[in-house]
Design brief:
The strands form 2 sheets. A 9-stranded mixed β-sheet has the order 5-4-1-8-9-10-11-12-13, sandwiched between helices. The protein is an alpha/beta fold. The protein has 10 helices and 13 strands. Helix 8 packs antiparallel against helix 9 (about 265-280) and helix 9 crosses helix 10. It has a single domain (about 5-300), classed as Ribokinase (UDP-N-acetylmuramoyl-L-alanine:D-glutamate ligase), CATH 3.40.1190.20. A hairpin with a 2-residue loop joins strand 6 and strand 7. The protein is about 35% helix and about 30% strand.
Length: about 300
């Protein structure tokens, strides 16, 4: 079995719950405030580790109480933290409002903005490993990480969120791109919505492909997953569940997919597994703490 290496953000999520989201300039009464370990990198690493993959997280924490709490939590998940270093700034923080089973998020990068190329190039990647990243650390760091991974024969998985434009050079380093329809539309420079057909989504994904052998996976929430794997099209149906908190659902999918690929599972089966894992995570509060175990996923498949 290969290993999963995640280079990415580590945040403390400060969550406020309310009956509805405030309008611009409005104050509403909240119900409670909660603190959850989060950050896309940490969430994906927690998901992979809980699902049985040997997982290493690469990132930075601040020298503050949030940093200490996050290190304790991540270590308890069985994640290798030897490549998580301290930075002379505050730990990354996300301010999240949850109302009507949906969320709004403001992210303050803090120490995540200081993850550098030298943090990622020394990790012991090998053939069969999976290298994962997202857009909450500097893009040059991601490029250095993926270049190192491809040299080692590892599979690179990019979750380009929060969406921002990237170079063609970085996109070409990606073996598997995992994104939602909004992010796909942004990167492809076209308008996409939740009402677009599968054929339209695949058409746009085909335009975005940087290499003929590149895989683009589009997560569609309750509609499931569409993937363009080279020239092959894969469709995984959605699962109907009662969502409580959608924060971290995409990260759960990415971490679960990486864990499956590191275990040598074929892409279609890995996507089905990851889709089921994400459907479990949205039925729980929080991002990192909501990630399921392999036994829980097996029970719903």
């Amino acid at each position: 079995m290969g290993r999963v290496f995640v280079a990415g953000s580590i945040n403390m999520d400060v969550v406020a719950t309310a009956d509805r989201h405030p309008r611009v300039g409005e104050t509403v009464a909240g119900k409670q405030v909660l603190y959850f370990p989060g950050g896309k990198g940490a969430n994906q690493a927690v998901a992979a580790s809980r699902l049985g993959a040997r997982t290493t997280l690469i990132g930075r924490l601040g020298k503050d109480s949030f940093g200490a709490e996050l290190r304790t939590f991540l270590g308890a998940q069985g994640i290798d933290l030897g490549s998580v270093h301290e930075a002379d700034t505050h730990t990354g923080t996300a301010i999240i409002t949850i109302a009507e089973s949906d969320n709004t998020i403001v992210v303050i990068p803090g120490s995540n903005a200081l993850v550098r190329a030298e943090d990622v190039v020394a990790v012991p990647l090998a053939k069969g490993d999976v290298a994962v990243s997202q857009f909450e650390i500097p893009l040059p760091t991601i490029a250095a990480f993926f270049a190192r991974a491809r040299e080692a024969g590892a599979t690179t998985v990019l979750n380009p969120a929060p969406a921002q434009k990237m170079s063609t050079e970085l996109l070409a380093l990606v073996d598997i791109l995992v994104l939602n329809e909004t992010e796909l539309g942004f990167l492809a420079g076209v308008e996409l919505s939740a009402d677009d057909t599968a054929a339209r989504i695949i058409e746009v994904a085909r335009k975005l492909q940087a290499r003929e052998d590149q895989t683009i996976c589009v997560t569609l929430g309750k509609r499931g997953v569409l993937a363009l794997a080279g020239r092959d099209e894969i469709s995984v149906p959605g699962r109907v569940v009662k969502a409580v908190d959608t924060t971290g659902a995409g990260d759960c999918f990415v971490g679960a997919l990486a864990a499956q690929l590191a275990d040598g599972v074929a892409l279609r089966a890995a996507l089905t597994f990851a889709n089921a894992a994400a459907s479990i995570s949205v039925q729980r509060m929080g991002a990192g703490p909501s990630m399921p175990t392999a036994a829980e996923v097996a029970a719903v498949l």
